[in-house]
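Slide 14.
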Amino acid sequence: MDQPLPSCPVEDDAARLDDLGIGQPGTLIVVAMETLWPPNHGGRVDRWNRWRLLKSLGWRLIFVSWTQDDSHEAPGHKTAMAEIFDHCFFFSNRMSIGSIARRILLLPRHSPHMSARMIPAGQRRRLVAQLAPFGADAVVMDGLYGSGLGVALAADLGVPLYYRSHNIEHLYMAHQAAAARGLKRKIAMRLASLHLERAETEIMRGADWVFDISADDMRFWAGKGVTRASWLPPMVALAPAMEAAPIPWAERPYDIAYLGNLNTPNNVEGLAWFVEQVLPPLQRRRPDVRILLAGSNPSPAMRALVADRSGIDLVANPEDGGAIRAQGRVLVNPILRGSGVNVKSVEMLFTDSPVVTTNIGVQGLDAETRGAFAVADDPSDYAALIDAMLDAGPVARADRQPHRDRFGIVAARGLSDLLRGLIGRAPAQDSAG
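Slide 15: predicted structure.
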């Protein structure tokens, strides 16, 4: 499973860190719930770009994760991951009779999302033996669901444990369960929500440092005694949104475009709200409005939502997200529930299109960044904002650039400096204890 991959430090940035007296970047073991390639949804985009940027600053990165198939063995996958990681280790979490039985047996204590990523002690010891020669400076748990292994690896290797929080996960999963359509999906989400609050609280309190995607979530956790934390916004400067050439405003084939996961219940719920409640008043203003909805794995509910509706095109699993966004004059993110930061909202800032979203779509962002969006929660107000933005035209690059800077190399340099300052500290004690 281990694939030796090339390293590519950037000398100028490494020298800059020496000038600051911080020292050379070190080695991190990254534990994530899934592979990062392709970066085709918000969580993967955030992870892919963050680690790619840190790699460019000279960090040596080792990747540990799980896979449900053999896609990680494909040459294209190996080549892509080689851009960032020196070595990759994958464990199987394929569905089987045995794995299902184990998850059922562990339901009284663990969410199936957690138990699916538990590995036997013998496998862990072999992994530790393979990781030890790298001399890692820290283990970074990139999300909650691989945290059992992440905690154990940090203890086994005697290094600090850092945690990247993407959501208030137990609330996020509760929102997904509430938004789910269909009894089967709702039951699955409810089961996935089991015991998450306890697991998440233990991780947040036990980590030596927490990097939280959301300033709002940080305040939530501070109220529960989690104070060893800093805001780390998503990084999207290298995402596909930067790769598409802009299309002149008048030549864009769609008035409105949306790109996002078309399967998760909260995304489908938000798009249903948009189609059923926002679109009618907008069509009264603009009868010929053209809409593009694109994203990964559209659910049956999503396909049924747009079936036989004139003026709406649905594109499943587009290969080039930047090209999708470039086709729309106004970009929308009609999200109604969730936590963390909505990465797709941040990605939209890397275009010249006005962005209309909800208050949930900008939660977790700093006040200045929120000002880059047109925000409404009422359907009529949302339709009126889209209408106004279509009249206003594209956003000047100079107006967008200050917002973009917060989510690219500037943020990565801040993270790199903070990591160098944190490494070497004595392991932290539970602030609530």
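Speaker note: The first strand starts at residue 27 and ends at 32.
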